[in-house]
Design goal:
Jelly Rolls; mainly beta; 6-stranded antiparallel β-sheet; globular
């Protein structure tokens, strides 16, 4: 695969039922599925996927496609992402074992409500990715980092994982 090629696309309706507490809210906005993340409570969304066999075992970039809640047109939002390798032959799936979360930069909310923007989270191969390699089953957890200045929810419309 070439650098920058898409490996995985994830959408709100495909998020798992986990976590059992502080799960991002599932909703629609003008018929578009969204996951809503609170400004003051750290909420999560988790997706399970299989890393494609053509993945070259380098770093990845996770792009979070999002917009601010209706009426929110100022402030910043930061996201974090963490991977969990499930198929390494030693991970016990009875508890979470996500690698340390990596964060995006703070991104300014578009000045017009309903406009989508993106944030990126870079991960190097190895420990930052919990050792995920080609053909591994893995989980991706996305959280809104508490403390951004955008009042109201931030709403995810999709997530893309690309090879770097």
């Amino acid at each position: 695969m070439a650098s920058g090629d898409t490996l995985v696309q994830l959408f709100p309706n495909g998020a798992d039922g986990a976590p059992s507490t502080n799960r991002a809210g599932s909703d629609t906005r003008n018929g578009h599925p969204i996951l809503s993340f609170d400004q003051t409570t750290q909420e999560s969304a988790i997706w399970t996927f299989i890393m494609p066999r053509h993945y070259g075992s380098g770093g990845i970039t996770i792009t979070v496609h999002w917009m601010a809640a209706t009426g929110v047109t100022t402030g910043t939002v930061t996201w974090d992402a963490a991977l969990e390798r499930m198929s390494d032959g030693s991970t016990v799936l009875d508890s979470d074992s996500f690698a340390a979360a990596q964060s995006s930069s703070a991104v300014t909310v578009p000045g017009t409500s309903g406009i989508e923007t993106t944030s990126t989270v870079a991960m190097t191969d190895g420990a930052q990715m919990d050792g995920v390699t080609a053909a591994d089953t893995a989980r991706l957890r996305i959280r809104r980092v508490i403390g951004g200045s955008a009042a109201g929810d931030a709403q995810i419309t999709g997530v893309e994982i690309r090879e770097t």
